[in-house]
């Protein structure tokens, strides 16, 4: 069936500095993706993680023994360049999932993506979105109008890429170009694909105007994806673009194990459950609960988890309904995960990028044992 639907699969790694070498886990993750014939390998762009560091302790998470600090996140373009040098065998596409338009000037992003595209002979993907508060506000970046900034950044990247090496002048409240020059060439006439992480109505329209792929992360449901994809495609059509050419993609977390009992224990682990704090109050409401961070909480884009003390973080995590966890991550044995993934496929997804967060559970041995079923999932997703 894979050949008929052309379902494709990517693997993402959190690129957190580990022991004994900083890239020990990332290298294992990359080699696993090669061995399981993934179509692409992805790294995030964060200065730190979206989870409470106060819970990164041995009693809550076994991986602390090999990853001393949760927030030691490495820089994505440097890491992708490092991986590109090893990527001669696998020849996977390499993507940033996703960079943001707050911290990085769009000219610098345009340059990084174009460079990677040339070095990989046309296999770079620029995943991009408005970013999150935690990677911007603490570092002095204005967080008042992230979507307006995103729209201007996308228009800037397109203007530079389309300039043919001529001087560019463009008015913009955020990124005005005055005799700006961008002379890097595309690879064989093609720039990297732009995959847009979008959720809200205005971002969905921007994805339709600028994106080659619609690429949301968690947390929503397959039927929400289908509805949002319609909005993206309508916006593409309104912008004079081919709506069907926009690739429906998704990044999603996976919690797996050798048995359902192992998976349920992992889903109950404090660090794994803390992922749910990145869901919005609307998602909590569906499960008859209030978001621990208050009514109207928007989710990942607004979370600031770094100053949450242990007691607060534990009480927040205790308020997460088990049914919510089962909604926001693919979870179960490989058979169960494939069944859940098929629901996304049936709602339009054609490219799924998966992240194994089973390693964040309490039990290190079971966390590491999850790698085998996760690899099996990657291989079987290819056949969806």
From TrEMBL:
Pfam families the UniProt entry points to: Bac_luciferase
GO molecular function: oxidoreductase activity, acting on paired donors, with incorporation or reduction of molecular oxygen
Residue ranges annotated for the Luciferase-like domain, each copy included: 39-350
CDD domains associated with the record: Tetrahydromethanopterin_reductase (cd01097)
Keywords: Oxidoreductase
PANTHER family to which the protein is assigned, alphabetical: 5,10-METHYLENETETRAHYDROMETHANOPTERIN REDUCTASE, PTHR43244
Name of protein: Photosystem I reaction center subunit VIII
Taxonomic source organism: Mycolicibacterium mucogenicum
Organism phylogeny: Bacteria, Bacillati, Actinomycetota, Actinomycetes, Mycobacteriales
